[in-house]
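I had to read the description of the data format several times before I understood it. The format is easy to grasp once an entry is in front of the reader. For illustration, here is how one protein appears when written out as sequence plus structure tokens:
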Amino acid sequence: MPYFCFLHELETLLDNNLIKGGDVNNAIVIVDKPVDDEEMARLRKIFKKEKIEVKSEGYLNNLELRFPNEPARHKLLTLLVICMIGYPIKARSLLTVPGTVRILSLLKRSNNTSKRTKHIKGVPQYNPALPPIYDQQFIEKRLPHRYPFMLVDKIIELGDNYIVGVKNVTFNEWFFMGHFPGNPIMPGVLQIEALAQCGGILAINLSGEGQYDTYFSENR
């Protein structure tokens, strides 16, 4: 697979003695400035070629491109390789020294990150700066619960078959005094109750006009 670079980049590499095995047969040099006879003679000497010319398409070597847009195809192939990771990436990538090996290394690291964070996919993103769909005053009009058993402070998402609520758990919650001293943990039964209250709001929202009470019961 050929590599691509601009002539000015090639000159920088040459000036710093960084060309290691480079050849016009394994790299396509895109000419991005006028080239005089002195520079052409220098390139012929470096690459040990009797004849080096600037093609009409604007590249410097004696190879025939398989396609007129081969550099674009090469980069498109890189994007297709990135798609092999299996999920969309929302990012901006800046590569100072790009290459297939580095792209594959990036994919490997991304895949490992994906495996570590797989369990959090689909978790709602909470932005406290956004106004809620239902605030606490509205929720109190829908649910009969009151302090200390009101366990929903706001609703941030609501659909036909799902709801997302927020309970702001603070250090001075009444249940932390005994659950547990020095190690405050919200009891699991209260977490379930908070979920049930969210479900109650969803059910009431789908029930139309009227006053309703919701109950958390077991069907056998």
About this structure: Strands lie at 3-6, 27-30, 59-60, 154-158, 163-166.
